[in-house]
Amino acid sequence: MKPAAFDYIRARSLDEATALLRAEGGDARILAGGQSLMAMINMRLVRPTLLIDVMQVPDAATPRLEGGALVVPLGTRQAAVLARPTLAAEVPLLAQALPWVGHVQTRARGTVCGSVAHADPSAEIPLVLAALGGAVHIRGRKRRIVPVAEFLTGMMQTALTDGELIEAVSFPCHTGGQAFAEYGRRHGDFALVAVAAVVSGPAVRLAVGGVNDTPALRDWPALDEAQIDDALNDLAWSLEARTDLHATARLRRDLVRRLGRHVIERARACA
Amino acid sequence: MRLTAAQRHKVSITLNGQTVTAEAEPRLLLSDFLRQTLAARGTHVGCEHGVCGACTVLIDGAPARSCLTLAVQADGCRVDTVEGLAPATGRLSALQAAFQRHHALQCGFCTPGILMSMDHLLAHDPTPDEARIREVLSGHLCRCTGYHPIIAAVTEAAARIQAETNHA
Question: Does B119 touch chain A (CB under 8 A)?
Answer without folding.
Answer: no
